[in-house]
Amino acid sequence: MTTQIATFHTHFGAIQFHKLCKSLGDTAVMMPVPRALSASCGTCVKFAVPFRPEAMTLEDLDSVYAVEGDGYRLLFRNEEE
Amino acid sequence: MVKWKDHGSIVLSGLIVGVAAIVLVLLGNPANMGFCIACFLRDIAGGVKLHTAPIVQYVRPEIIGLVLGALIMALAGKEFHVRGGSSPMARFVLGFCVMVGALMFLGCPLRMVIRLGGGDGNALFGLVGFALGIFVGTLFLRAGFTLKKSTPQPKVEGFLMPAVAVGLLLLLVGVPSLLAFSESGPGSMRAPIAAALIAGLVVGALAQKTRLCMVGGIRDALLFRDFHLLSGFVAIFVAVLVGNLILGSFNPGFAGQPVAHTDGLWNLLGMVLVGIGSVLLGGCPLRQLILAGSGNSDSSMAVLGMVVGAAFCHNFGLASSADGPTAYGKIAVILGLVVVCAIGGLNLNKQK
Q: Greater confidence, A41 or B200?
């Protein structure tokens, strides 16, 4: 299973997403956002359950990345405007 | 090696910030005040005559440098994202309250670390209060506190705070007669403009690059057992401590410390207020300045709240002095604690 990282606009968004992942049976963890990624809030969620935009795009979600070795590949961006 | 790769840049930045603080004191800044965001914003408020306390008036180039250093680094790193609109009034009031707490203690969290490195035992009470405040702040975060997300704003919104910084610099260099300059006290003790500006630019750029944040360190340690940001905090302390030891300016003790008082309870409570307010804002006063330079107009509102708060503190006798806290200052800190907890409690999202 691919490790993914979701970034958020608010810490609250991270809490909600973390709870959602847990409800899907994931062992998701909240942690500080890696420096290579940029986000207005300092908290991200590392999770493994495959990201489904239609079901998992919460309002405060910023982006979702796949962790690949030392790098990150953008999987999804929650477009604004 | 992995650890150095992960934490090397923030440790190195912390060490450079510590050295810069020592050098600025050598060049003329008040002792244990190479950098202090609260004190310097307060000096700027006095410099532009928002308050008239004669000993703390000077448009500090360090602050101008911090904002512009962050701007340059954010632009260079393609991280200049103009955002805002996340409860601006709440952020203004939180910034105001953070300043009330900081001027009770006589320093922002960064100066608290610098004071510790100078041997000022009173800052230990500040550190305990600061950690307590951050703990309370994390309780609000865990309970679903949110000021709602920011949204993209027009480019000009992000450039206004750096423009204000440039405007202040032009006034300071070009038309100083318009500004107030302390002739005695901390405001009269200043490193040369160029040195202060360069130190601010370097620290601003490094802080933007590494996300250095005094509040974030303890917050992440409490929330996630992550010590990355805390390593920057510790590095500043080590650099200042070693610098003071080398220069013979390490003076351990409580009484007679520079720009400090010995009232432990109010040193502690002042920093409790700073800790809670800063967690709700998402970062310490330094971090707010850096974000304000990086296009975040919400942080600009917090900075303006701090400036206005500083003016109120000196116009109404709320700020402490070397003689200790004032009665009005104590009332203001208690009211500040009530206000930040109310903002925290009233912004809990029930959907958590």
A: B200
- How many domains in chain B? 1
Contacts with A46 from chain B: Cβ below 8 Å: none
* Contact check, Cβ <8 Å, B81/A16: no
- pLDDT per residue as tens digits for the range B205-241: 999 999 999 999 999 999 999 999 999 999 999 999 9
Tell me if B306 is assigned to some domain: yes
Domain with B198, as residue range(s), is 4-346
For residue B304, give the 3-state DSSP assignment.
Answer: helix
Residue among B40, B9, B6, B36 nearest B20 (CA): B36
- Domain count of chain A? 1
Residue B2: per-residue pLDDT: 47
Report if residue B292 sits inside a domain.
yes
Q: Tell me, yes or no, whether B351 lies in a domain.
A: no
Residue B185: inside a domain: yes
A31 and chain B in contact, CB less than 8 A: yes
Give pLDDT tens digits for B53-93: 999 999 999 999 999 999 999 999 999 999 999 999 999 99
Interchain CB distance below 8 Å, B144 and A80: no
Domain coverage including residue A17 = 4-77
Assess contact for B26 and B160: CB atoms under 8 A: no
Interface of B with A in 141-180 (CB under 8 A): 141-142, 144-152
The helix/strand/coil state of B211 is coil
Contact at CB, A40 and B216, closer than 8 angstroms: no
